[in-house]
UniProtKB/TrEMBL annotation:
GO terms for molecular function: oxidoreductase activity. Residues 384-436 form the BFD-like [2Fe-2S]-binding domain. Residues 445-466 have a biased composition (Basic and acidic residues). Keywords: Oxidoreductase. SUPFAM superfamilies: FAD/NAD(P)-binding domain. Pfam families: Fer2_BFD, Pyr_redox_2. It comes from Subtercola boreus. Residues 437-481 are annotated as: Disordered. This is Pyridine nucleotide-disulfide oxidoreductase. The keyword Transit peptide does not apply.
């Protein structure tokens, strides 16, 4: 039986580990976090436990069943606090996988090198927020951060909070904010009614297969009604203002391309604002392993979740944004096939059916709630684009003009956008999209080796990070144990 190494212990990785174990493979499951569950199943600090943690999360019983099955299984080694920082490939197969183990900023972390027969990548996604004037003020949160604080700490980001952006994720975020004591004064979705109808209405009977999602949605609608939270379409936050922290936000109606419609601005007093425009896959390890990306900029996989690299599988949000149920189904398929099983095996039938259902659901989300290009119309010259290096939109325009805009590398080096502590995780996609607008001549050519959306002619992309997590120089120099 093969040794299967799984990176990421969110829904996809946990499900992959269980499926691989059920076929008898020796499994090692790594996660940089000190808890299992990923972004979806979070945990309160041990000092502030909840008597009924299950009411704080959807599907908590699914999680606890997965966790106890894996924790009590001698064939599954779980290593928490293990951050994978590099992957080498050998002859088109996974080679060495390098991890540091210990507190993220701690000294004396140990190092491990793994050489598995098969590798499952389940590294998830970051939440994405488009920049707008004032988004760097204290009190402005990404939707994911607000959700993480609410679910993982029971901390409310403010008492009077406006939620805005795009996508169904805004609904659970609003519900969590209410549950932690915030007053949510409105949820504002940038896409307009027509876009939502075009995304959600076709072949409505297919939605019946995802009835569970309908029940969840009904819960959120009820929550909105109970707490009198308005839900408005075709409206975006276009600026935030305040002296030491956010005090007001300006919302405006936007057209179908998300360009703000002049004269529709309205200023609202808030003490916090929470904005999310979807998710960006965490691709650095997949790129390091040599996995090909598709036109949608996610890792491409075949029926058995195998990537373009032999014995490297991918599951969950790095293959497309589809939520927890899709991640669980993909994880099960990836783990089963990585352990030597076949997609034709009867025991995968249910996971394959779930994957079909939730892939169709994910398409609807993208069609209804995808990011349009007109948001660039709400940027001003002094809007910060790269928060780590404090690079403004004006600086970026200057760098593009000075370098001719042909090379993302030149634009990054001359403006420093994407070179700060987050290594472009927050601003990378934004910088690429701005560069392709500012340099309209630069489209990606055919035969592009890094995937289709590397913004500039030099084929550089911001997702490529040779060292995937922050590492001390001493750790880099040390011989792994
Ligand atoms: C901040 C945030 C909050 C979210 N909250 C919700 C929510 O409340 N409800 C909802 O429906 N959806 C939520 N989502 C969407 C959610 O991520 C997915 O639906 C689901 O968790 C995807 O599962 P996954 O297994 O693909 O990835 P994840 O759950 O993201 O799991 C990926 C795991 O990989 C680990 N990892 C990544 N890189 C490395 C590395 N280099 N080394 C070691 N480990 C690594 C991470 O620590 C993480 O535990 C949230 C997303 C984000 C970004």
């Amino acid at each position: 039986m093969p040794d299967v190494l799984i990176i990421g212990a969110g829904p996809a990785g946990l499900s992959a580990a269980r499926a691989a174990r059920r076929l008898g493979a020796a499994v090692t499951l790594l996660d940089s976090s000190d808890e299992l569950g990923g972004q979806y199943w979070r945990h309160l600090p041990p000092s502030r436990p909840s008597e009924r943690e299950s009411v704080l999360h959807h599907g908590w019983a699914t999680f606890t069943a997965l966790r106890s099955e894996l924790e009590t299984d001698d064939g599954c080694t779980i290593i928490r606090g293990a951050s994978v920082w590099a992957i080498e490939t050998r002859d088109g197969r996974p080679g060495a996988v390098f991890a540091v183990i210990g507190e993220p900023d701690g000294a004396g972390r140990s190092q491990r090198v793994f050489e598995p027969d098969a590798l499952v990548l389940a590294t998830g996604a970051h939440d994405r927020t488009l920049p707008f004037p004032g988004w760097d003020l204290p009190g402005v949160f990404t939707a994911g951060a607000a959700q993480a604080l609410a679910k993982g700490e029971r901390v409310a980001i403010g008492s009077r909070v406006l939620v805005a952006g795009a996508g169904p994720f805004l609904l659970p975020v609003a519900a969590s904010l209410v549950a932690t004591g915030s007053t949510v004064i409105g949820v504002y979705e940038a896409n307009r009614t027509k876009s939502l109808l075009a995304g959600w209405l076709p072949k409505p009977w297919q939605l019946l297969r995802a009835a569970k999602k309908g029940t969840e949605l009904a819960g959120y609608v009820l929550n909105h009604l109970q707490h009198r939270i308005p839900y408005r379409l075709g409206v975006a936050v276009v600026r935030a203002d305040g002296t030491d922290r956010v005090e007001t936000v300006t919302i405006a109606r936007v057209d179908a391309s998300w360009a703000p419609i002049p004269g529709t601005e309205q200023t609202i007093a808030v003490d916090a604002v929470c904005v999310g425009h979807g998710f960006t896959p965490r691709l650095e390890l997949a790129l390091a392993a040599g996995c090909a990306l598709g036109a949608d900029d996610f890792v491409t996989v075949d029926e058995g979740q195998q990537t373009s690299v032999s014995s490297v599988y991918a599951a969950g949000e790095i293959t497309g944004i589809g939520g927890v149920d899709l991640a669980l189904a993909e994880g099960e398929i990836a783990g089963h096939v990585a352990a030597g099983g076949s997609v034709l095996d009867a025991r995968l039938a249910s996971a394959l059916a779930h994957r079909r259902t939730y892939l169709a659901f994910a398409d609807r989300i993208e069609n209804a709630h995808g990011i349009e290009t007109g948001w660039q119309g709400w940027l001003t010259d002094d809007t910060v684009v790269c928060r780590c290096e404090e690079v403004s939109y004006g600086d970026l325009c200057g760098a593009v003009a000075a370098t001719g805009g042909a090379s993302l590398r030149s634009v990054k080096l001359s403006s420093r956008a994407g070179l700060g502590i987050c290594q472009g995780r927050v601003c990378g996609r934004t910088v690429e999209e701005l560069l392709s607008t500012l340099s309209p001549g630069h489209s990606d050519g055919p035969g592009h080796s890094d995937g289709p959306r590397s913004a500039a002619a030099d084929r550089v992309r911001t997702d490529r990070r040779p060292i995937a997590v922050p590492l001390r120089l001493g750790e880099l120099a040390a011989e792994p144990g």
